[in-house]
Design brief:
about 325 residues; alpha+beta; Beta-Lactamase; Heat Shock Protein 90; about 45% helix
Length: about 325
């Protein structure tokens, strides 16, 4: 825009917080040797803004425009331009520009500037929506982590505190031995929760897409397991959020198999068909009763978290198992 119209200084202002008429300087583009500068902040008159700026048409000034906004340039520009950036009748930003010579937009130039403004407004609106979605995902992850700490780690520590109090009362030797065993298990359980969550938070997405990521996580978390990995279907691009869900479910399922199943064989199967990704982690270990699992203290609290993660990606997670019959965790998410 600066080069095409021969402008001196072009500045993008974005709204500060929720105040639509108060904007802060965000990006500046200046020509060579330009000494002028733009203010850090500009404030538009609300009523004038509704009448003039929300039309989306560029406005050219050759004088002070105090009816709309104070001249944002220092020293004040004699000829300057305001391009409102509007998306769905909502202000998302403003471009202001100064010129050394009087500005005059013919119909072609005015149309070009309007189109550029529309493209910029669309990009800003999309970026804000992406930020909002990322913020919502972060909040969901915080809520999940807080729930797991409350229902898992906190209860382990509470049990350890009770056992320590019992041991300090100097009980008889048999009761003390039983209390010490419970204390050791509570501490070990708390350590497993902390370690698993740290590993969970450190999961990253390598180059090569979800298939490469599944193979990498399986190799890393499946050490010591009799593990076989198979992948079928076309290569696909998953969103980072959905890929993270797949990897975290895989991490939790392999951790459960290593801790509880005592398996002779473990299979990780990834397949993509009809716009659906399916991840299966199956073992031939000791199995358990899924209906009674998922609560704190039973060793399978991660099942609840895996189901919540599957739902956050618009998918579904099922667990098939029975005592002495192995276990199969199946995750299905749309791609």
């Amino acid at each position: 825009m600066r080069d095409g119209l021969g402008l001196e200084l072009v500045v993008l202002y974005l709204p500060r917080f929720a105040e639509a008429a108060t904007l802060q300087r965000y990006v500046t583009s200046a020509g060579n040797g330009v000494a002028a500068r733009a203010r850090d902040e500009v404030a538009f008159d609300d009523e004038a803004w509704q009448l003039a700026a929300l039309s989306g048409a560029p406005l050219v000034f050759r004088e002070e425009a105090s009816w709309l906004v104070a001249n944002p340039f220092e020293p004040p520009a004699r000829s300057w331009l305001v391009v409102p950036l509007v998306s769905e009748r909502r202000l998302v930003g403003v471009v202001v520009a100064s010129a050394l010579t009087p500005l005059s937009l013919d119909p072609t130039a005015a149309t070009l500037v309007t189109l550029l403004g529309d493209l910029l407004a669309s990009g800003i609106a999309t970026a804000r929506m992406r930020q909002q979605l990322q913020g919502a995902e972060i909040e969901r992850e915080r809520a999940r982590l807080a729930a797991e700490i409350h229902d898992g780690l906190a209860q382990d520590l509470a049990l350890a505190t009770r056992e320590l109090a019992l041991l300090e009362s100097e009980p008889d030797p048999e009761l003390a031995r039983a209390s010490a065993a419970r204390l050791r298990e509570a501490v070990a359980s708390a350590r497993r929760v902390v370690r698993a969550r740290l590993e969970d938070l450190s999961v990253h997405i390598p180059l090569g897409g979800v298939e490469a990521a599944v193979k990498e996580v399986s190799a890393r978390r499946g050490q010591g397991l009799p593990l076989v990995v198979s992948c079928k279907g076309p290569a696909i691009d998953l969103s980072p959020e959905t890929t993270a869900v797949v990897l975290r479910v895989l991490t939790e399922a392999l951790a459960n198999a290593a801790r509880h199943a005592q398996p002779e064989h473990v299979e990780v199967r990834l397949r993509v068909e009809e716009r659906m990704l399916t991840l299966e982690v199956e073992d031939d270990g000791v199995g358990f009763q899924p209906a009674k699992a998922g609560g704190p203290g039973d060793g399978h609290f991660g099942l609840t978290l895996m189901r919540e993660r599957a739902r956050s990606a618009g998918g579904n997670l099922t667990v098939d198992s029975a005592p002495e019959s192995g276990a199969r965790v199946t995750l299905e998410v749309p791609v």
